[in-house]
Design brief:
It is a single chain. This protein is an alpha+beta fold and 219 residues long. The chain has a single domain, classed as Chloramphenicol Acetyltransferase (2-Layer Sandwich), CATH 3.30.559.10. Helix content is 31%, strand content 23%. It has five helices and nine strands; from the N terminus they run βαβααββββαβββα. A six-stranded mixed β-sheet has the order 2-9-8-7-5-6. Strands 1-4-3 form a three-stranded antiparallel β-sheet, with no helix packed on it. Strand 3 and strand 4 form a beta hairpin. Helix 2 runs parallel beside helix 5 and helix 3 packs across helix 5. It is globular and about 55 Å long.
């Protein structure tokens, strides 16, 4: 993995916002909104179609990499910019516990799906233990709640000043066939990003879902 570059704080237009929000006891803000997954559902349900989870996971990681601010992380008194960010996600086990799996982003969906499928199988076979990997900040943290079409979300947190990893949660699909939507929660550190940057993530996520849904079923 390539080393991240240091952000030039003196040339950063948001320097004042960074200095303000990094002093907050709870500097994170959360947005919940639906995305249209109808095209992705159609492709995944077709003969030979891929996993819906992996399709949406891949599209969201691509969207996060599209938005530079979601690749910013606080380190010490400064900010680094990762060239690529990856995904760590909860993985449901057979006894209803969960473990963590870590998935390297690859722009090519088929390559990503092969690698991610192997990770899922390995995590489920091992059955734990938990491996939070607090030493890594080149991630987005994902959770999946396929049982609830939520409209708000709050995360369990340890209030550490160096925690600036965004968190994304997928909820249960809802709506009529052919017009299905999925709630998505996005939580970011306000010292690094504003609402406009989260909005860009949703825009890029939707565009990637639509593009994926228009493609052929996986071989």
């Amino acid at each position: 993995m390539s080393e991240p570059r240091r952000l030039d704080l003196d040339a950063w237009p948001r320097r004042a916002h960074f200095e303000l929000f990094r002093t907050y006891e709870h500097p994170f803000f959360n947005v919940c909104a639906d995305v249209d997954v109808s095209a992705t559902v159609r492709r995944c349900r077709a003969s030979g179609g891929p996993s819906f989870f992996l399709a949406t996971f891949h599209a969201s990681l691509g969207a996060a990499n599209d938005v530079e601010e979601l690749r910013y992380r606080i380190r010490g008194d400064g900010v680094v910019v990762h060239n690529v960010v990856h995904g760590g996600s909860t993985v449901l086990l057979s006894d209803e516990r969960f473990a963590f799996g870590y998935f390297d982003y690859d722009p090519d969906f088929d390559a990503f799906a092969r690698s991610a499928g192997a990770v899922l199988a390995e995590v489920r076979a091992a059955g734990g233990p938990l491996d939070p990997r607090d030493d890594r900040d080149d991630l987005l943290h994902y959770s999946v709640l396929p049982w609830i079409a939520f409209t708000s979300f709050a995360h369990a947190r340890r209030h550490r000043t160096d925690d600036s990893v965004p968190k994304v949660v997928f909820g249960r699909r809802h709506g009529p066939a052919g017009a299905e939507r999925m709630p998505v929660s996005v939580e970011v550190h306000h010292a690094l990003a504003d609402g406009i940057h989260v909005a860009r993530f949703y825009e890029r996520f939707q565009a990637r879902l639509d593009a994926f849904g228009s493609g052929p079923p996986a071989a």
